[in-house]
Specification:
Elements (H helix, E strand, L loop, with lengths): L1 E4 L5 H13 L3 E6 L4 E6 L17 E5 L19 E2 L5 E2 L5 E5 L6 H14 L3 E3 L17 H14 L3 E4 L6 H7 L2 E4 L7 H9 L4 E4 L6 H12 L6 E5 L17 H8 L4 E3 L1 H5 L2 H13 L4 E5 L17 H17 L4
Parallel strand pairs: 7-8, 7-14, 8-9, 9-10, 10-11, 11-12, 12-13, 13-14
Antiparallel strand pairs: 1-3, 1-4, 2-3, 5-6
Helix pairs in contact: 2-3, 2-10, 5-6, 9-10
The chain binds phosphoenolpyruvate (PEP) and manganese (II) ion (MN).
Phosphoenolpyruvate binds next to loops.
Length: 338
Amino acid sequence: MIIVLRPNITKKAEKEILSEIRKLGYKPHVMRGVSRTVIGAIGDEQTHHTLETLTAFEQVESVTPIQKRYKLVSREAHAEDSTITLPNGAVIGGKELVVMAGPCSVEDEKQLMTTAEAVAEAGAKVLRGGAFKPRTSPYEFQGLGEKGLKLLAKARKATGLPIITELLSENHADMVAEYADVLQIGTRNAQNFQLLIAAAKTGKPVLLKRGMAQRIEEWLLAGEYVLSNNNPGLMFCERGIRTFETFTRNTLDLSAIPILKRASHCPVVIDPSQGSGRADLVAAMCKGAVAMGADSLLIEVHPNPAEAWSDGAQQLSLDGFKDLMLELEPFKAAAGRE
Ligand code: PEP
Ligand code: MN
């Protein structure tokens, strides 16, 4: 912790502050400048008090932590990029740009199989599909539940694509993990810490979406719950944040890519579908994301978006997805991706 003292501090007040720091279990190092004195307090913040309460002293101007609050997700903890290898050999966080694609929701066998075959053919390496849907209204389609998971497993068998699907509740952790290759934690549960722990404990890789009003530091700290529960398979997924803008459903924060790449070793995924809410913006968002260093894309694709049971406005058609995959090639090459 760095404690900055006010310029006019008296000797007596300084002594009091130093003794308080010692009392709280820290070792103070005093650094005297021309106009100000700064104290570096060394100690373990996990076992000791955080020292933030020192701001209660009138003569203390500020108290700033030196160490980052997130540890295991940080680059300091792991200098190399982390990679996650899926059952089909796809490596997320490596040289390859891994595209995950499929419908927002699993609706029926024909819809899922048609989509799975088309996205596999176009070059996707993971099939997405929601079986448990976190709908804003309880009167909207809630997903097929386990029946949807069974259909996903069937589509995996037919195409060889591993599957990613959302885990909505701790109660379902074991069941969903039995079918899924990657567990998706949605924006609405981004800080449901018990759910994050339950997901981590399944041992399956976890894709953690950004909360719709979550700061990046909070998101990194949420990721810390996965890594600190002995699951190294964490990836962060930016899916847009809520702003005042209404042209788009969410504001896709592409600046999260270089920020996360610098702050963390975990792979970064971009979801341009929830991120824009508009099929006509998905391609541009993907190109930007690839150019900025995203490791993976999570894209909604439906055989007939106009009739989708959820998120119709943002889903690409099968042809739209195929075209996008071709359009991405020069962007991948420019970004040094395979
Ligand atoms: C989804 O991927 O369909 C979804 C519900 O995502 P989010 O949690 O980002 O809204
Ligand atoms: Mn969706």
